[in-house]
Write the structure tokens for this entry.
Amino acid sequence: MRRDPIFYQMFQRSPQLLFDLIGDRPDNAADYRFDSVAVKEPKFEIDGVFLPPESKPGTVYFCEVQFQKDEKLYERLFGESLLYFYRNSERFSDWQAVVIYPNRSAEQSKLFPYRALLNSEQVHRIYLDELGDARLLPVTVAATVLTILNEDEAPEVAQTLLARTKQEEFTEWERANLIDIVTSIMVYKLSNLSRSEIRAMLGLDLTQEPRAIREAKEEGREEGREEGREEGERSLILRQLIRKIGGLDQSIHDRVSTLSFEQIESLGEALLDFASVNDLEAWLAEKS
């Protein structure tokens, strides 16, 4: 199971999750947005960036979710991040980097050249298997640990987290968002079960969208914010598709761009099983 798309969806829905993981929430955490950024000359794109609101200079956070060993990760992360910060230093007051690993064995071997950065307060290395028992962690952080649990243990932990969303103090929107995150993780983990079977296993009603999400879509939550979230998620899914199956011709790109937000969310779950553009075309044909 590829976990980076799961984390990207989690960050897209709830950017504050990053700050829960590193244990330091800025006052304007709710105003951050998760996006990708492009750097020209030389041209490259950084997928996981948490940007403060443009109206107020703040810290930019670069995030990598790394579940497979990459012996050039730190070279790329620090090189690209510092270049982007250099090109946009007037927008930001500081930069930090966050790398999320399932365990220490997934980290690259060559650490010595980067010791000053790795041991500084600007770089946060998160090892999910060292965060502790998911049942005892804050629900947002526990959801990230859920991604690495085995299939035998995960359902019980997921049920516990869902129960806690009802017992602890969350707004209705936060509660609905957490339920959506937990159930999405289980859909990815238990690929042999249908979504309805997973919802039934977790004691949830598959046929109804969480009321808070439905009302936010109908009424518009915090003027303009829902529209921006939809556009951001649509862009994120397109980038994930390109990374998964390669470039898309214009006709397919246009078809994906015209999908409804509900279909885009569904595509975000389905694309993990795609092996080629033929799988995407079959999925689009089924939805048309």
